[in-house]
Amino acid sequence: KQEVTQIPAALSVPEGENLVLNCSFTDSAIYNLQWFRQDPGKGLTSLLLIQSSQREQTSGRLNASLDKSSGRSTLYIAASQPGDSATYLCAADTDKLIFGTGTRLQVFP
Amino acid sequence: SAVISQKPSRDICQRGTSLTIQCQVDSQVTMMFWYRQQPGQSLTLIATANQGSEATYESGFVIDKFPISRPNLTFSTLTVSNMSPEDSSIYLCSVLTGGTEAFFGQGTRLTVV
Predict the structure, then answer these.
(1) Residue B107 with chain A: CB contacts under 8 Å
(2) Neighboring chain B residues of A43 at a CB cutoff of 8 Å
(3) pLDDT tens digits for A68-81?
(4) Contact yes or no for B107 and A101 at CB 8 A
(5) Considering CB atoms only, which of B41, B43, B103 is closest to A46?
(6) CA A80 to CA A58: how far, in whole Å?
(7) What is the SS3 assignment for A15?
(8) Min Cα separation A44/chain B (Å)
C-alpha cells in the first residue's frame, strides 16, 4: 500500500529564502509524481508533474526532482515571496493519486 | 490543462439533510474523481466516475451515502446524503488530462450543524 509523507509539516521563513520541501513514498512503482499548491479552504492548483521517466521539472522559481529508486521527490522554491504562502501537497500516481499530508508554508515580509 | 467549475463553493447544512455538489469541466474527459479533505487532513479519494456506468467507490465509502451521477463527459454530481457533523469537509472534483496530469475544482467547503 502506497504511503506518502511530507516533511516538514510546517515552515515559516523570511522573504527571499530558498526552500526545499520533501516528499517520500513507499512504493517506487509510480507513473508520475505531482506537486500542488492549496490556499486555505480552496482547491488544488497543479504546480509541476514529473513523469516516472523524468528526473526533474522546472517552472519559473519552482524546480521539482524525482528519485524513484529512493522514493523521494523534492520541491525547490527559489527566492520565496509572501505570495508563496500556502500548503504544498505532493501526490504519487499508482493507478490513483495518493496524497501526502502537506507542508504548510508561511513566507513573511 | 482543464478548467473545472465546482459549485457551491461553500454551504452550511442541517444534519439529516443532503447536499448535491456539481462539477463542470471545459472539455470532455473519461474519468472524473471525487475527493474529501477533512479538517487538517490530506485528500482521500471517494470514488471514480465514468460516463455511462456506475461509479467505483473506495474502501470506506458507499453509494447510499455518496451517490454520484455522470450524465455526460463534462459533468458530474456528488451528493452527500443524510449529513452529520462528521461530514464537514472540503469536497473536490478532479480530472486527468492526457491521462496523467490532475486538475482540481475550487472545492466545496461543507459545514454540517
Answers:
(1) 41-43
(2) 4, 6, 92, 104-107
(3) 999 999 999 999 99
(4) no
(5) B103
(6) 15
(7) coil
(8) 6
Contact B95, B32 (CB under 8 A): yes
Ramachandran bin of A77, using left for φ above 0, alpha for ψ from -120 to 50, beta for the remaining angles: beta
| CB environment A83-99: b (16+ within 10 A), e (fewer) | ebbbbbbbbbbbeebbb
User: Chunked in runs of 10, what are the mean pLDDT values of chain B (113 residues)?
Assistant: 94 97 95 93 93 90 96 95 97 88 94 97
Dist. CA B33–CA A13, nearest whole Å: 35
Q: Give the three cell numbers for residue B54.
A: 456506475
Only one residue has cell 500556502, namely A86
Do the bridges between strand B10-13 and strand B108-112 make them parallel or antiparallel, or are there none, so unpaired? parallel
Helix/strand/coil (H/E/C) assignment for every residue in B18-47? CEEEEEEECCCCCEEEEEEECCCCCEEEEE
Contact between A50 and A33 under an 8 Å Cβ cutoff? The reply is yes
CA distance B96 to B94: 7
Torsion over CA: B32, B41, A20, A77 (sign): positive
* B31–chain A Cβ distance below 8 A for any pair: no
